[in-house]
């Protein structure tokens, strides 16, 4: 049997595919220019907007420019991971190139091709998402489909709208209802695009007594609709969620559909949970979306397809009204929007699409199973595909609620924000982010349907996420427990002020206050700023795991030091004492330097006066003749004079002139030095033990639910033993210093006759 003849590919299409493949290899290679090329580019005017060059450039040069613009800041800001673009992504990108090429075909051939593309894509999507007898509208902005549905509903309810326009709306105002859990700004965008006043938008609260806090209150919606009808308004359209933007909850779509049928309203559904309609087993609450008047799909993030349009599937029997609403177009170029999606769906096939959605759902289920073992995590999503979790209230974390009730929400929001940022940084392939929910506050969201296909998230990434989560939960719990202890310790110190900033994810903030009260306000503020700045630098140089910072970017308090997250073995008392001790040393040394200029000036004047007086005494003692150069030499040869000038030393610490005689009293001097250099008693530390840590305590040795009182009691016992050891070890050390000093005395004595050879010195 003869094989069917193989048709030759259009050389233009083949060349286009090759060029796209080469371009993607160049852009995705990540090979940047050499160091020499970077230096040239820094000085090149090509990085700045300018006139178009007269001569053209080749493709490689243009792609190199694009690559520089894409990766130019990687060496300064670190490499930023781009979306994973696989073969299916290349097909989507090829679709945009093909759309430009196809648009130049002759009109009849272009019409046939666009009709085939639209009909195929619409049929495939309707079958995949179980939306029977539906039509499709393809749009770049995922809100544009809802705008078109509103126009269609207006044209349906107002028969003469096409000719009379908005004058018809003045007699019977349309009302659009949306859930309070809808994405922010959606209703305002609708009113802006439709030319409707904001009074036409009705926000329906979520349940407050029964059911989920993120589901629309159906009973209240029924009451609102009846009230609007009685006041002469027209209930036009209801926007429901199959996966709220924040928590992924699904409204009671079956009950809402019954309500819309009762009041002749249009029901539109959107949300990430609509992606699960392609699976074999789907929740009945999501399946109800297939009976609604319209749904908006976003296959791009679900399947990892870049630059593909969103799709709104709808049912309507009047083509004229669909045309009036802008849902159909006679322009072939408009119909080519579906081309990238048409190519990508064919490349993936039914099994490939199903596999990606199923994989994302399994990742959510995997995370949910692991979160059940963590008692300190509250899950806001009852089921996949999105998981929203939150570090819970203080009572459940084992800490004391006293003192935190007023600002508990702000504190937990700050800690959850820190948790989300750390997880996103340490496990970037997980795709976690931080969301703000009205009732729960700040939460960490894991939505693999929106991120897994683009990032290539796998099971090991979820395992790494759970591992990091298990490491950070004890840190959060300890920080909550130690916040109040840290505040109490700071308030006991007269030289420290506690900074109350509940948005800071850590122990809190302090400010070292200057003890001098005789300065004016400007000088005092300057001294406080300098002391705290130097104190922060000193603390950051310490060998400790604690994080020290000058605070949040928009902190109202200035000249502060903020301490980050704490661990189980943190010694809060030692931390505060160290801050006070270092701050006091900086303040005292600062006072010395501030007075140094005046002290040195006075000392120099006094030294000059004493030197002048000594010279006058020398002149009176030796006589005038000895001052004459030639005569003085002869007299000194015949009759030498044993003249002596007493040495002077300038003590900067005391700001006065002293005689140098004590310098040569070696024993007294060495004893003085030994007393100054004798080490102070410090807290005894074990090998490898860092600052501010209690020996024997650790995040692994003590459970998260252990009481603070037990930890403090064990710390007191350890501190008592360490204090006894320090006292016993201090005596022999001091004795050894004196022995060394005595041994040095015998070798450093100066003959008395050499005292006269010293000169005035400044020490």
TrEMBL record:
<dbReference type="GO" id="GO:0016831">
    <property type="term" value="F:carboxy-lyase activity"/>
</dbReference>
<dbReference type="Pfam" id="PF22930">
    <property type="entry name" value="PDXDC1-like_cen"/>
</dbReference>
<dbReference type="InterPro" id="IPR055103">
    <property type="entry name" value="PDXDC1-like_2nd"/>
</dbReference>
<dbReference type="InterPro" id="IPR015424">
    <property type="entry name" value="PyrdxlP-dep_Trfase"/>
</dbReference>
<dbReference type="GO" id="GO:0030170">
    <property type="term" value="F:pyridoxal phosphate binding"/>
</dbReference>
<dbReference type="InterPro" id="IPR050477">
    <property type="entry name" value="GrpII_AminoAcid_Decarb"/>
</dbReference>
<dbReference type="Pfam" id="PF22937">
    <property type="entry name" value="PDXDC1-like_cen2"/>
</dbReference>
<comment type="similarity">
    <text>Belongs to the group II decarboxylase family.</text>
</comment>
<dbReference type="InterPro" id="IPR055102">
    <property type="entry name" value="PDXDC1-like_3rd"/>
</dbReference>
<dbReference type="InterPro" id="IPR015421">
    <property type="entry name" value="PyrdxlP-dep_Trfase_major"/>
</dbReference>
<keyword id="KW-0210">Decarboxylase</keyword>
<keyword id="KW-0663">Pyridoxal phosphate</keyword>
<dbReference type="GO" id="GO:0019752">
    <property type="term" value="P:carboxylic acid metabolic process"/>
</dbReference>
<feature type="compositionally biased region" description="Acidic residues">
    <location>
        <begin position="754"/>
        <end position="763"/>
    </location>
</feature>
<feature type="domain" description="PDXDC1/PDXD2 second">
    <location>
        <begin position="408"/>
        <end position="480"/>
    </location>
</feature>
<feature type="region of interest" description="Disordered">
    <location>
        <begin position="743"/>
        <end position="763"/>
    </location>
</feature>
<dbReference type="InterPro" id="IPR002129">
    <property type="entry name" value="PyrdxlP-dep_de-COase"/>
</dbReference>
<keyword id="KW-0175">Coiled coil</keyword>
<keyword id="KW-0456">Lyase</keyword>
<protein>
    <recommendedName>
        <fullName>Pyridoxal-dependent decarboxylase domain-containing protein 1</fullName>
    </recommendedName>
</protein>
<feature type="compositionally biased region" description="Low complexity">
    <location>
        <begin position="699"/>
        <end position="709"/>
    </location>
</feature>
<feature type="coiled-coil region">
    <location>
        <begin position="597"/>
        <end position="624"/>
    </location>
</feature>
<feature type="domain" description="PDXDC1-like third">
    <location>
        <begin position="486"/>
        <end position="591"/>
    </location>
</feature>
<dbReference type="Pfam" id="PF00282">
    <property type="entry name" value="Pyridoxal_deC"/>
</dbReference>
<feature type="region of interest" description="Disordered">
    <location>
        <begin position="693"/>
        <end position="714"/>
    </location>
</feature>
């Amino acid at each position: 049997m003869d094989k069917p003849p193989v048709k030759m590919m259009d050389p233009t299409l083949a060349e286009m595919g090759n060029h796209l493949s080469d371009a993607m290899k160049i852009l995705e290679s990540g090979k940047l220019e050499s160091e020499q090329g970077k230096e040239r580019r820094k000085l090149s005017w090509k990085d700045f907007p300018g006139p178009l060059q007269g001569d053209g450039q080749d493709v490689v040069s243009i792609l190199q420019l694009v690559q520089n613009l894409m990766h130019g800041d990687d060496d300064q800001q670190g490499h930023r991971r781009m979306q994973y673009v696989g073969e299916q992504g290349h097909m989507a990108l090829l679709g945009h190139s093909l759309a430009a090429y196809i648009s130049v075909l002759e009109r009849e051939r272009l019409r046939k091709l666009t009709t085939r593309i639209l009909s195929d894509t619409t049929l495939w999507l309707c079958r995949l998402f179980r939306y029977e007898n539906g039509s499709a509208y393809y749009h770049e902005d995922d809100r544009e489909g809802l705008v078109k549905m509103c126009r269609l509903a207006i044209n349906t309810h107002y028969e003469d709208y096409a000719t009379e326009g908005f004058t018809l709306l003045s007699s019977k105002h349309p009302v659009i209802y949306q859930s309070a859990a809808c994405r922010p700004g959606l209703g305002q965008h609708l009113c802006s695009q439709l030319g409707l006043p904001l009074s036409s938008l009705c926000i329906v609260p979520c349940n407050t007594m029964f059911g989920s806090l993120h589901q629309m209150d159906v009973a209240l919606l029924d009451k609102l609709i009846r009230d609007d009808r009685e006041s002469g308004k027209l209930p036009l359209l209801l926007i429901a969620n199959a996966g709220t933007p924040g928590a992924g909850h699904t409204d009671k779509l079956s009950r809402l559909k019954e309500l819309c049928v009762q009041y002749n309203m249009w029901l539109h559904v959107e949300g990430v949970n609509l992606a699960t309609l392609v699976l074999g087993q789907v929740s009945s609450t999501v399946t109800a979306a297939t009976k609604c008047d319209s749904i908006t799909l976003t296959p791009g993030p679900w399947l990892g397809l870049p630059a593909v349009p969103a799709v709104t599937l709808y049912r309507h029997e009047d083509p004229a009204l669909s045309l009036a609403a802008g849902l159909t177009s006679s322009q072939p170029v408009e119909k080519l929007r579906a081309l990238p999606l048409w190519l990508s769906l064919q490349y993936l096939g039914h099994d490939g699409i199903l596999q990606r959605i199923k994989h994302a759902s399994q990742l959510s289920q995997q995370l949910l199973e692991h979160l059940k073992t963590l008692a300190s995590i509250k899950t806001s999503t009852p089921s996949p595909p999105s998981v929203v979790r939150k570090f819970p209230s203080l009572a459940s974390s084992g800490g004391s609620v006293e003192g935190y009730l007023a600002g508990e929400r702000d504190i937990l929001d700050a800690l959850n924000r820190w948790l989300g940022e750390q997880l996103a940084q340490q496990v970037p392939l997980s795709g976690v982010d931080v969301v703000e929910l009205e009732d729960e506050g700040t939460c960490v969201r894991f939505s693999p349907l929106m991120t897994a296909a683009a990032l290539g998230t796998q099971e090991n990434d979820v395992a790494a996420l759970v591992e990091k989560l298990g490491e950070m939960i004890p840190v959060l719990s300890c920080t909550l427990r130690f916040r109040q202890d840290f505040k109490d310790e700071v308030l006991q110190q007269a030289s420290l002020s506690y900074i109350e900033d509940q948005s800071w994810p850590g122990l809190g903030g302090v400010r070292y206050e200057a003890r001098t009260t005789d300065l004016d306000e400007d000088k005092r503020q300057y001294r406080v700023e300098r002391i705290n700045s130097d104190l922060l630098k000193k603390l950051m140089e310490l060998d400790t795991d604690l994080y020290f910072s000058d605070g949040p970017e928009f902190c109202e308090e200035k000249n502060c030091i903020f301490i980050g997250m704490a661990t189980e073995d943190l010694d809060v008392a030692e931390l505060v004492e160290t801050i006070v001790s270092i701050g006091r040393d900086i303040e005292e040394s600062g006072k010395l330097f501030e007075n140094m200029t005046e002290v040195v000036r006075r000392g120099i004047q006094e030294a000059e006066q004493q030197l002048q007086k000594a010279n006058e005494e020398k002149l009176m003692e030796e006589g005038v003749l000895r001052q004459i150069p030639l005569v003085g030499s002869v007299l000194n040869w015949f009759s030498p004079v044993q003249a002596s000038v007493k040495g002077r030393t300038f003590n900067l610490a005391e700001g006065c002139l002293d005689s140098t005689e004590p310098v040569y009293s070696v024993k007294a001097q060495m004893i003085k030095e030994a007393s100054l250099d004798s080490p102070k008693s410090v807290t005894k530390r074990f090998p490898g033990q860092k600052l501010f840590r209690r020996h024997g305590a650790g995040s692994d040795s003590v459970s998260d639910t252990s009481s603070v009182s037990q930890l403090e009691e064990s710390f007191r016992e350890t501190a008592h033993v360490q204090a006894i050891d320090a006292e016993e070890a201090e005596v022999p050390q001091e004795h050894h210093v004196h022995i060394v000093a005595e041994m040095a005395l015998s070798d450093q004595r100066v003959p008395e006759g050499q005292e006269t050879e010293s000169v005035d010195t400044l020490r």
